[in-house]
Amino acid sequence: MTTVLEGRGLSKRFGGLWALRGVDFRLEEGEILGLIGPNGSGKTTLFNVVTGFLKPTEGRVVAFGEDITALPPYKICQRGIARTFQIARPFSDLTVLDNVVIGALLRTGDPEEAVEKAKNILDFVGLYRKARDLGKNLTTIERKHLELAKALSTEPKILLLDEVMAGLKPAEMDAILKTLVRIRDSGVSEIVVEHVMRAIEAICDRVIVLDYGEKIAEGKPREVMANGKVIDAYLGREYRLA
Ligand code: ADP
Ligand code: MG
């Protein structure tokens, strides 16, 4: 197995609060890794640190064997790491197509080529028929797919997904889950932050659990969901399996 992304002793302090504390993790090539934990446990902060939006107080981020801790976000994106945001904010006065073209321009200076790539990505996420609509006129599920398309437009090898299923109905969730698996099958490793345990169990190879910024468990989804510490910190008793 090849490790594509690694956090080594990552800590992030905001004033007196440790949003992350000594977190080690690895993402293997071709893997979908779940990242779960209560609200405020540090999941989004971990994504911000990996993508260079925040610098860690301590620790290193290593991608494809190289230390990227000090790099600015656009350079980390160039290295092949993309993310979605917990609050999806499409450029609301641009068309769906142009929302995706912007990211594609990271990889090519040729506008026609960028448009071609963007169309292919919209087709891949099932939004092609909306290409000419404005970002602000999309439904919730369409906005989620646009968020995925924007992230894919930079041609990532690693994709970090922050609660992309929040606010969706079960059938819509299934559509997103299928897309996430197809993205993985296309050669992109993923870290998925999600509160819906059914979704985590369906697609994740492994899961890590944060609580108050610390990693409290790691393992296969079923093992982690049966872990007493995880149940007490996050899941509650109804998840106790035996
Ligand atoms: P999660 O995504 O797991 O809900 P976050 O990573 O957003 O958690 O937040 C972890 C903790 O760090 C929370 O207590 C939050 O209030 C705090 N926090 C996050 N970002 C900032 C910031 N920019 N400044 C100060 N505190 C922050
Ligand atoms: Mg969050």
List the helices and strands and how they pair.
Elements (H helix, E strand, L loop, with lengths): L2 E12 L2 E12 L3 E5 L6 H8 L7 E6 L2 E2 L5 H6 L2 E3 L12 H9 L6 H14 L15 H13 L5 E5 L7 H16 L3 E5 L3 H7 L2 E6 L2 E6 L1 H5 L2 H8 L7
Helix pairs in contact: 3-4, 3-5
The structure holds adenosine-5'-diphosphate (ADP) and magnesium ion (MG).
How would you portray this structure in words?
The protein has 242 residues and is of the alpha/beta class. It has a single domain (3-87, 154-241), classed as P-loop containing nucleotide triphosphate hydrolases (Rossmann fold), CATH 3.40.50.300. The chain has nine helices and ten strands. The strands form two sheets. A six-stranded mixed β-sheet has the order 6-7-8-3-9-10, with helices on both faces. Strands 2-1-4-5 form a four-stranded antiparallel β-sheet, covered by helices on one side. The radius of gyration is 18 Å and the shape is globular. The structure holds adenosine-5'-diphosphate (ADP) and magnesium ion (MG). The site of adenosine-5'-diphosphate has 11 residues, from strand 2 and helix 1.
